[in-house]
């Protein structure tokens, strides 16, 4: 099942009557006055352009504040789901999805007018579409399926598809709230939403592969925070009588005394597989293949263990085993989810933002493919995917993702649709025509509007930037300086004592055509053409006879140039 369009009647004061197509296989059009929906197949569609595992890639671009992230929010129904009243008056939109034989619709309940609605598919009117809309109920999200072959509709579909809302770190709080939405029975969503809160278990193996490929060069540093009030859950011996009779402060002090032996202390965990992993970590520490740093925060009552994971062949398997065995250990203790979160209050990766984003993205994709989740289609949403990445990384990112997904999904069975927001011109040049949406503000209405770019694929990066991403090829400060120079050169009154400073500023300009034009204006204004030649000759180590020869050559060139005009 593919997401082919987002149709917006109203979304706050940001969007009004907008259609965003996310598949060049079909074109969706909607008449906002008559509720007439048209879906037409594109005869020029190229199948498997990105390989058999990636059916399409769409990019949303535009300057900040134009609504890029809001579009992703609509695709996951974030603003509707978080509303306590389960309805938001000024958020009216519909998602249009398609499988081989069926159309799927998810919409805010008042998107369709039950008295007026019709569907055309590839030019043919689909009967039975409008009848399903009758008797609509108030609710935040509604959904139904329309079968293109049997011409019937049904509610509450069970679809084998999932949206992965893999947003950047600044959406961390939103991600936590997202995870509860599937439990809300009032929301009749067609497809499941999944949002990763913790780091995927494949992160260590992914790090290994990315390091070997040269895409990540930093050590992987993990910060593990364990709250001390729950430390007895890990160290059973702390439940013994001599500990029970001591205050928390006393126990805290004794624990602090042997913090350097933290790894040895973990040997006392009751689970054999966990003990084996920790012993191996301790051995690797002795061999200086990894390091650990320990600190105790007395005010917040937790222990911080920093594990610096360096590139080693044997470590991915080790950490994978630890992750699985320790999770099992916590499950066996029947700890509630709340207590587990308190036990490990934070697991953080401390490497560059770009490396972290790449590592988490690839790890999550690998987790989906390796865990045999019963879904056949995945829609991955990423907000500003290139955040923190070097320009060369953003230039290679699409190619890397496509090759990686196709490589690890060799056996097939899963299909991915990627929707990104970005500011990178390099990524735009890797996208098929018609799949780049540029958001611009309509100065008359104040609403953001989407312009579909048709000529980005394999286009010169500088042309993409000049035409679509920037208003000028120079920075604003440099442009102001250039305009100031031109104003001074065009002024009727000469500015006494300013000639030398102006000349110095002109010579700072790196662009040769612009610099030479300004020098030409300078020579004309201050009548310094001959003087400038003499000044340059003085810098050369020439005798008088040689200077005369150079002057003659210059005069001959000037005469020849004037004759050609």
TrEMBL record:
InterPro entries: AAA_GajA/Old/RecF-like, Bact_Antivir_Def_Nuclease, P-loop_NTPase. It holds the Pfam family AAA_15. It comes from Streptococcus oralis. Residues 55-427 form the Endonuclease GajA/Old nuclease/RecF-like AAA domain. It comes from the Bacteria. This is Endonuclease GajA/Old nuclease/RecF-like AAA domain-containing protein.
